[in-house]
Design brief:
The complex is a heterotrimer. Chain A is mostly helical. Chain A contains eight helices and four strands. Chain A is elongated, with a radius of gyration of 22 Å. In chain A, about 45% of the residues are buried. Chain B is about 50% helix and about 5% strand. Chain B has a two-stranded antiparallel sheet with strand order 1-2. The longest helix of chain B has 21 residues. Classes of the chains: A mainly alpha, B mainly alpha, C mainly alpha.
Amino acid sequence: MNNGPLLFFGILAAMVSSFWGLILLPQIQIGRQQAVVLEDTGAYYPAVRAGQASQGAEVYRSLGCAECHSQQVRGLGGDLARSWGRRISVAQDYLHDQPVQLGLMRIGPDLTNVGVRRPDTDNLYAHLWNPRLVMAGSIMPRYPFLFEQRRLANGELRAAEAVKFMGLPEDLEIIPKPEARQLVAYLLSLRADNELFEAPLPAAPKTASVGTNAVATNASVVAPAPTNSIAPAK
Amino acid sequence: MSKHRHKHKPQGSGKSGAGQDAAGASAPETRAARPARWVTLSDEGLQAPLPERGGEPVATRTAVPVLLIALLGLMLYLGDIYLMANNGSFNGLVFYPYHSTNQLADLHPKSETQLAFEKGRRIYRANCAACHQESGLGVAGQFPPLAGSDWVLTEGPNRLIRLVLNGLAGPIKVNGQSYNNVMVPWRDTLQDEDIAAVITYTRSEWGNKASAVPPAQVKKVRDATKDKAGSWSADDLLQLPHSD
Amino acid sequence: MSAASVPTSEREPAPATIPAGAARDSVIEIDASLRWPVLALSLGSALWLFVGLVFAIIGSIKLHAPGFFADSVMLTAGRIRPAAMNALVYGFASQSALAVLLWILSRLGGNRFAYALPVVIATKLWNIGVLVGVWAILAGASTGFELLEMPRYASPLLFIAFVVIALCAVASFWARRVRELYPSQWFLLGSLFWFPWLYSAANLLLVVNPVRGTMQAVVNAWYVNGLLGLWLGSVALAVIFYFLPKLSGRPLFSASAVALGFWSWVVLTGFSGLTSLIGGPVPRWLPALSTAATLASLAPLATFAFVWYRTLAGGDAAARGDTVLRFMLGAAVCFLIAGAVKIALAFPQVAAVTNLTLMGAGLKFFVVLGFVGMALLGGIYYILPRVLGADWPNAQLVRGHFLCTIIGVALIFGPLALGGILQGIKINNPGVEYASLARSLTPWIGLSSLGFLWLLAGQVLMFLNFVKLLRGWCAVQCSGCATWFEEARPVKVGGRP
């Protein structure tokens, strides 16, 4: 191998083959996916995030939440059994995400359907302000910089926009900054549980066994599919 | 092993020693040609470099052990086998753990109509397509079309069910064209479910859009016309309402 | 370190491998021509290694002690961790890779390096780029793509700087005196080409003109694998293939076996990036293709191991004490372990447990700091004294750094891998409540924090040695500096203090 040009050709070919196989081919295959119309509701899926929710995606990216939280329900492992979603995640679900944040690690739980599993706004605010208030022993860091916090004078009432959460100290007023509102709006918008052709809802017996392990708040996630909304197959 | 060791001694530092001598000779020009701060070493540095260990490395020309080539071949083969078993038909809609779009289609709960439609297609292809064709277009002048036919797309299937049960003979006008041929009766060949399925199929295939026909309705007509002898004529059928 | 060298008189002249009429430049000239590029690159890389390790320690501690620096938005775990990885990969590893690459290419080519100035300027640009990029990540401007977090105002600086250095390196390679190629040069030439392709393609497809949906995850996984394998990995392998025979005093076993390993490794690594997406929202055939390629990469792994074994077997006993050789052996062992672990993790049954756990982070640190880091540190330890013309003042500190590195890397990877497996098993058991699951990870993450501390301690040792070395060298170089360092005595060049 003393022929420089030939060596370079091989080096080039190795890169080109990798690029074609892993980038160009899949781009041709799934790169041009479009939103589909759901049969039961007639709505486009996935919906474009608007307003605060789309700004919240930026907060999610900026704070690096994906370092510890995933956004994918895999077709293997305990993902479905933990009722992180009632079906697997597929490419269609991420069509409008920029950037797509599938996540690096699961130090915390998956958030694919957190908008369904934890629909309580104040609960989410409290969780961001101090996770230990909501979940004892959580190792998630606090995000106090997302909130304005103030001690209340004796007998003073909390402002209307302050976080209402039972575990908060009586004399503490916590007001979410815009970033917190956006982030929570984004979290509430996270939902990917409608049936698609490529992601059928698991058969009933399996869903039932999932239900026994599910936390009470997840009841809506494991409820059987009301309708069949089948996207046209290719 | 030891053979190679003797044959392919690395380039000794005799070489680099010689290089040092040459450098010693050429060093003054080198220094003169360059800005002093950039590349020159002190005289001490030039004369006493760090001991070089064995010169530049060289590689022996021993042939590749065959076992290594065989291992590469084996691993590529195993990798291929894995890929063949797990490629999800190379389809962009197939995600782990599914294998193909057919499997996905089977996993979706099907409505009665869908099942009837598929059953009807099987029956149609076995019994009807010989005359009416798979395309549903019939044969010009001999067998009337079903696709877009004014006889098929009636609001109710009353006449259609009778026609299939007892057959039809004589002149008939379909979409303005006249035909004169014989359609055999299917009363004794096909069950209620089969007739319902095949009529459902003809009423929703080829761009046809008309209501499905439940088996109960076929049974009702069958009971009502159980004494009918012979085939229908088009005129008789047109006397009847198309729906109850 | 150099004390272990074998007296020159014991060596026979090598077989004539250099064509007549193409005399090499002397090693002194070659080393001297690379002084400023290597100095600039290795100084930058040492500083970034320090910064990266400090960040990594903070990021690691934050995972087991969430109250640590909790009020600082810049130091939140989601920012400090990618900042650490970027500092380590682009600041430390890539820069020392470039330093070692330039030196090895020049040495093997037998020609002086004629482009010192552009390389030094490009190095400054690279460092500015990394600084801007890391700062931007801490400030929240991350792009959100793993190892591509640097925003679009930082990444072009890196790209331009790299292209300048790569062009200089290729031009120097083109003008080499020794036409015959040694295996290290294959790897180095490839890496010079692969990094710009990977970096520009990934930035174009993710940041500038983003592809849609999970194609982003595909491009990202492809890039991370290529960056660690084809860029840093190639350079590290080149370094191992250069120094193992050189320092053990044995010829490299079978150029053709290395060629077989090289081509199969390059092609298979190119396809093996998507195993991190097994079971995820990408078409099933993509990770399956990567699994097949990863599985097959057992062959090049075995080939390299065999070549290294045959090269070292029966080598000089005296050479075994050499710290640089130990660094190389450590790197080689890390390469083989990382490769074997990757193969194991490529099976869906295993990935179901290990993907998206601490294992992934552990493996990346292991590759960057163990395999790549040890090879490059060893290379720097060999090269710096030669381009400066002054040996490390304290060989004990070098040995100390090696020990710290071994302990640190083992403490990072071992606990994270084990903890990752346990984490995966618990995640897959829906009966385990998540908060307690996460809490059970903290001892493992704590151990890895200790590992980073060991690495940092080793880094401090290197820094001490480095400062001494520079001071002694300055004193030798210009009498003017001697007044600055009053206590500095001229170091005997080439000798031990």
